[in-house]
Automatic annotation (TrEMBL):
Segments forming domain G-protein coupled receptors family 1 profile: 43-293
Main location: membrane
Species the sequence originates in: Acinonyx jubatus (Cheetah)
Pfam family, one: 7tm_4
Organism domain of life: Eukaryota
Protein's UniProt name: Olfactory receptor
Entry keyword Membrane: yes
Amino acid sequence: MASVNMSYLDPTTLMLIGIPGLQDVQFWIGFSFFAICLMALLGNTILLIIIPTEHSLHQPMYVFLAVLAATDTGLCVAIAPKMLAIFWFGSCSMAFDACLAQLFFIHALQGMESGILLAMAFDRYVAICDPLRHTSILTPSILVTMVLVVAIRAMVLVGILPILIKRLHLFHSVVIAHSYCEHMAVVKLAAEDIRVNKTCGLPVGFTILGFDMIFIFISYILIFQAVFRLHQKEARLTAFNTCTAHIFVFLEFYILAFFSFFSHRFGHVAPSTHILLSTIYLLVPPALNPIVYGVKNKVIRKRVARIFLLIRHSQQ
């Protein structure tokens, strides 16, 4: 690696230090994140087994839930192995291109998760505001098209970020004060003009997260208007009950997302606090989503209970 005026020219390797200021205790913090990842992988794998095999769950809401489970699984796989290797084994080095690949997959999967939450909000809107046309509007071909649009949008928009980083050649450091390769954490290492990277990073974030959040919010305003027009109290409660799981997941995802997004760019949050919160934002929703939807659905609860009973009987 060549050094030019105390800078690094076209570095091939970067160093991730984990959580700055907490290196002495991050070994133990790793066990908490490992437990969260294990819970996320177990819960989402169970959903990916149950939903395709249970005919009564072959509905738009649960098709989207299966895609969300696959996305959450991918997110855990993208972030957890290297992060835990840093915490437990001090394996801090990472190839520059591997870092960009991790950056791409983490942010693209975040974008896909946001898009799937928007698709789920649209499903609830149609189910409550136009129930008679629900199955005719959300046909299997429409569902596939929606999922493909969500995936392509995330990959194309996020794909711009590593391409822009690759045009940078001179870096003042190769040490990333983070536990994974986050876009701005990598960009701030550059010793060149990074205005283009910053300028593109904000629109990509708002185009995905901001656009989705606005339309989810509009969907729920329309849903609540339709629900309050129902005359029977039981009908209103039933309609609200079908939305509570999605509302919880929506709030959990976007509150953590925007706090992480803005604190890294405009806030004066301590680096250790920011990294802990951004990692929680990435790992906690995948762990909670299967629990939230599993608790709300009787079929999923029964199938999960049956799986654990089978495991218990096989061990006896």
